[in-house]
Structure formats: structure tokens, C-alpha cells
Amino acid sequence: MKELLLFYILTGAGLNVFPRYDGVVIEVIGQGRLVPVVHASGSSLRVELNEPLEWDEYGNIPIWIDSFVADSSAFTVGFSSLVSSADWALSGDSMVMIVFARAETPIDLPPVAWQAPPVAPDTLQWSDSLVYAALESGEGSPWLADFDCIVIDPGHGGRDPGAVGLSGSCEKDRALEMSLMVRDLLFLRMPELRVVLTRNADEYVSLGARTRLANRNRADLFVSIHCNAAVNRTANGYETFFLSRARTDDARTVEMLENNVLEMDEISDAPSDPLSFLLADMAQSIFQNQSSFLAGSVQNNFGGMFPQRRNRGVKQAGFYVLRGAYMPAVLVEVAFISNQAEEQDLLSLDFRFRAAQAIVESIIQYAEREN
Length: 371
Description:
By secondary structure, the protein is an alpha/beta fold. It contains 8 helices and 15 strands. Helix 6 crosses helix 8 (349-370).
């Protein structure tokens, strides 16, 4: 009997197979524009490509597939009787092809579909006076006793594409995809935890609205997910920031890039009342050690997941999206979308999934430390 595996089985430079509870996704990542020719016959699907295909097989194939054969520029999949239909599509830039074979009857597992809606926000609010009283005494926000809610913030969105790679892929799309994976993996690993996203579609959310959402939901943690960019196209690696004054030229550069979106806000998000400024400064000081711990944990887990990649370390910067959060907060720069090789990695479902795994593991370690 074939073993049921939830995550990727086959992987290579051009081909990934990613089983899900409701079927299986086959992802092809091209070095250029893909022009696939697809032949379907019964339960078999053959895809012929216009460029060489590189792949490696290991482990057991998932239960949705009976046979899988690949050669230098084509692959043929024989789907099992558990699959009812198969569809395929190209990305807008024709760099990525996705085949989704849908199960006739999904396996009874928690729903880990990337398109599921976020948990409805909790409308109960804490007044600024209660928060001020806690922070003034050197304590955390009054809701932090129980680790029961976090906010995941996919960077950019809508009219703000974020950084754009050489092949035209946008930071906003990759950040959203990884954030949705983080949410769904947390649902599996920590089902008691409520996870709220600042956006779950390609929409614009102002920087101030993101932390206001976290405060309104009484979040215990705020994690903002981004892709890095630099004028130097060879810049590479991963780094994690927590809120403080930028101490290096690199940190100031990233801070400037991420804060530039403020220019897109029709109305400034900057708080006008003195109490809001005071609360932000207090929170920055009180939660600095916790935020620093989480940032270090993210870096360590990325190092374990991607040992060949450059660890750029934990850094401090004055990101506006973190300012105003009355809880520990970090901003993760997963990879440089301005670097051609790392942009291709970000286009890989396997890479994004492993990055999400590293972030989730860090959140779990943080929760265990707090409890």
C-alpha cells in the first residue's frame, strides 16, 4: 500500500509534486516562458514542454497517483481512481505551470487550501487607557497572558506590488502565498490558535490599518512577511527585523523601501494624538526582548531549512508596519526577489512551503517559551 504523505514527494529544478488533502498539485517552473502541450486520455495526462526538464524522484508517490514517468522534456502522470478530474493553468507570465488533480472524495483532514477565508475578526476592543496603564507599569498588553491569537501580515498588496523581480513577479503575490501557507500549517500544528490575516487577497491595506487590526484582535504576536530587494542584483539571503532604530546602512535601506508605501495612503496613517505616540514608544521598549527572540528563532530555523543560503542575521529598523503594534512583532525578509536566482526560488511552491514551515516552527518555539 502506498504511504499517505501530506507534503512534497518529488522535487527538482523544474518539477515539484505537492499532495494535498483534496488532490495533488504538480508544479513546473520554467527558466523562460513555458509553451506546454497537454494530452489527456482517460486517467492519464502527458505534458510536453518546450525546454529541458530536470527532476529527481525519491520517497513514495502519493495515493492520488498510480504512475509517474518523466523524460528530458515531458512527463506522464497516471492518476488513481481516487481522482475525479484534472485541470491545468499557466501563470500570467507563463513562467509557471500548475496541474491540479482533484480528489473525488477529499481525505478527512483539516482544510489546508490556500484560498480559505481568514478567521472572522474579534470585534472586542481594549481601550487605550487599559493598554497605557499596563505599559506604564512595565507590563505587556493586558491580553497577552494566554497565547491564543496571532496576526500574519502579507506585505504589500493591491495597488502596492512591493518589489518586482527581473521576470516580472511581484513581492505582494509571493508574500500572500507564504502567509496563507503559514496560516494553514498553524491550523494543523496549533489548532487551538486563532490566526488572523491582514489580507487574504490581492488588496491594498494601509500600514496603520494592519497593526490596528492586530490590536483590535488582541493578538499575542504580529508577523509581517516580505521579499527583499536591493539595487545590487547579487544581494542574497534571509534576514528578520524587529522594531527599533536602524543601526546599519542595509537596515536603513530596507526600512526606506518598506516605508515608502506610506506615500500611497490617501490619508496619513500617522497617529495624531499624543497617547498613540506614547503607547507605540512604550510597546517598542517593553516587547523588544520578545521580538528579538522571535527574530532569532526565525533566522535559526531558516538556517536549518536552507543551510546553503546566506544568513544575514537579526536586524533592527523602524518599520512603520510594526510601529503601533501593542504586542511583540517582527518582519521577515524571506529572499531577494531582485536576485534572479532567488526570484526563481520564490516562484517555487516547494521553496515557499519550506519558508512557511520555518516561520511556523519559530512561532511554535516562541509560544512554548512564553508558556
